[in-house]
Write a structure and sequence with these properties.
heterodimer, A: 307 residues, mainly alpha, two-stranded antiparallel sheet, B: 280 residues, MetI-like fold, 11 helices, 0% strand, elongated
């Protein structure tokens, strides 16, 4: 058990180190690099000294100066982070629950119309690039039907009479971006749950449970779903990575003021320090999610522990 | 039994539909200069509505959108197919070497693990942002990062293949490593490689459209994602009707290509591994 965890930890530390180093060397490796306008002043320090300084600054949260926002990168990121956390968190909660439920229903109704319908619908949705689905939502739901706000995370210049109004407004703005992220990423969890359930439902102990006369719902909940969930944990982390990356596109389309839209802004404005800062946050977030999933997996599956 | 047959027919139908769509796009890409009504760089009256001269109107600088779309097929498919072929080649080679020659296995697999754990798309985005945007650079970054899953899958297949009795028998008859590889190992991994090729293409076209959408595509050779980038940057795209001829066609081309690759992938996967049957 401990061996397994230690190798995992070591490999994650190594990857974080590689990503930090890449972030340092990338601007310096590019031939006609953006170094001149990147806020990295040339000095007579050696590359090694610069590198050490960079690492020390990172630990202190110094990520450089954003040229487009004219503010420290870290301050810009800090402002945006809460919105991305809200968006990713909501989407993840929804697609995990909805994915598992639809997958279980599909497996249960295998071969029936509801199974085929879900399958076709969710696979088709998975073929939409998140930004395109988001643009369609804006065209139809925000402009033509006018039932959702068209951009941003809050209505600007508005006085809320109650604190409840603020929450309602934020939720109202959250629906379309979260729906876009959820719908484009639910397919993987759905398919995996469906497959996993189908495998488990074919096991002897399910037959035994049926023979005992337990209700279908009880078997589903206590015997099938519990065992089918194990492989899904790893996949949840994988899809979470996909969703975190997807926020770059979805936030861009909805002008949602998170970390993702900063990537877009930074690319348009050639604001490389901001781009690197946003990249660092996104990459570390994905790694963190994967790491947690790995640990949870080791904890849950005794077979991995004993290896 | 009848139901099983029916379902098999159904999934093959899917594969056929997918192949049909893909062939349509490939033909469009190959014969783009003959199909497109105009040179995509030629400028006419800007933001024109669709009319008899410009079936899908013109964009913000007056380029014919239909011609852009047809030439965009070329760019999107070229990047996707070229990058997935290169990554399939790298992945297969490393997978076979790691699986067959035990000495290199540990080393290669640690690199594979590394590439699998690194958040690839964010990394691709930042590297692309630091490089000059060009079709070749996009091919390069995608090929560089998308081979690792293929390598892992091929390796585990080679590991089981090389210990099969008939391979042992061949070895006993004095066959060398290269004979065994060429005669027994490689032909048996080809189906898996093809499946991987389709899955990786599906991923790359999705990622490429995203990269182009945020403005990291080649401005001199516009892909579908780039057309969507232009459309999105146009101030009144959502308010006016322009989305219908500027945004919708390019987006649907991407969706259809991804859908066709998905269908082909499922159909192939089922042939290679009947246990994975989707509609059982």
């Amino acid at each position: 058990m401990h061996m397994n965890i230690i190798t995992k930890v070591v490999s994650y530390v190594l990857i974080i180190f590689i990503i930090l180093s890449l972030n340092f060397f990338l601007p310096r490796m590019m031939p006609a690099g953006p170094l001149s306008d990147s806020g990295i002043t040339s000095s007579n320090e050696s590359v090694l000294e610069e590198y050490i300084n960079y690492m020390v600054n990172l630990v202190h949260g110094e990520l450089g100066w954003s040229t487009s926002r004219n503010a420290p990168v870290w301050d810009v990121l800090k402002e945006s982070l809460k919105w991305t956390v809200l968006l990713v968190g909501t989407s993840t909660a929804i697609y995990v629950i909805a994915g598992i439920l639809t997958g279980a229903v599909s497996a249960w109704k295998k071969g029936k119309k509801s199974d085929a319908g879900l399958l076709v619908l969710l696979i088709s949705l998975a073929s939409f690039p998140p930004f395109f689905l988001g643009m369609l939502f804006i065209v139809f739901l925000a402009w033509r039907l006018d039932i959702f706000p068209r951009f941003g995370a809050q209505t600007l210049f508005i006085d809320y009479s109650t604190p409840f109004g603020v929450v309602l407004d934020i939720l109202h703005h959250l629906i379309l971006p979260a729906a876009t992220l959820t719908l484009t990423s639910i397919g993987v969890i759905y398919l995996l749950t469906r497959n996993s359930m189908l495998n488990v439902l074919g096991e002897d102990y399910i037959l035994a449970a049926r023979a005992k006369g337990l209700s279908e719902w009880y078997i589903m909940r206590k015997h099938a779903l519990k065992n089918a969930l194990l492989p899904i944990i790893t996949m949840v982390a994988l899809v979470a990575g996909f969703v975190i990356t997807g926020t770059i596109f979805v936030e861009t389309v909805f002008a949602y003021p998170g970390v993702g839209v900063l990537v877009y802004e930074a690319v348009q404005a050639h604001d490389y320090p901001l781009l690197q800062g946003a990249f660092l946050i996104i990459a570390l977030a994905i790694l963190a999610v994967n790491f947690i999933a790995d640990m949870v997996y080791v904890h849950l599956d005794p077979r991995v522990r004993e290896e | 039994m009848k139901i099983a047959f029916l379902k098999k027919y159904l999934t093959n139908q899917l594969g056929l539909i997918g192949l049909g769509i893909l062939i349509f796009f490939v033909v469009t890409a190959v014969f783009a200069p003959y199909i497109a009504p105009y040179d995509p760089d030629q400028r006419y009256k800007s933001t024109d509505h669709p009319n008899s001269a410009h079936l899908l109107g013109t964009n913000h600088v007056g380029q014919d959108i239909l011609s852009e779309l047809i030439y965009g097929t070329r760019v999107s498919l070229f990047i996707t197919l070229f990058a997935s072929f290169v990554s399939a080649f790298i992945g297969t080679s490393l997978g076979v070497i790691a699986g067959y020659f035990g000495r290199t296995d540990f080393f290669i697999m640690r690199i594979v693990d590394l590439f699998l754990t690194i958040p690839r798309l964010p990394l691709i985005i930042i590297i692309a942002a630091f490089m000059r945007p060009s079709v070749w650079n996009l091919v390069f970054v995608f090929a560089l990062f998308e081979w690792s899953i293929t390598a892992r899958i091929i390796r585990s297949e080679v590991l089981t293949l090389k210990n099969r009795p008939y391979v042992d028998a061949t070895r006993m008859f004095g066959a060398g490593d290269f004979y065994i590889l060429g005669r027994h190992i490689l032909p048996n991994v080809v189906p898996l490689v093809v499946v991987q090729l389709v899955l990786v293409s599906r991923y790359i076209i999705l990622a490429e459209s995203g990269l182009s959408f945020i403005g990291l595509g080649d401005p001199t050779a516009k892909s579908w994602g780039m057309i969507l980038h232009d459309a999105f940057e146009y101030p009144t795209i959502f308010i006016s009707d322009a989305w219908m001829w500027w945004m919708l066609p390019a987006g649907m081309c991407i969706v259809l290509t991804i859908l066709s690759l998905t269908f082909i992938g499922y159909a192939l996967e089922e042939l290679v591994n009947p246990r994975l049957k989707l509609l059982t």
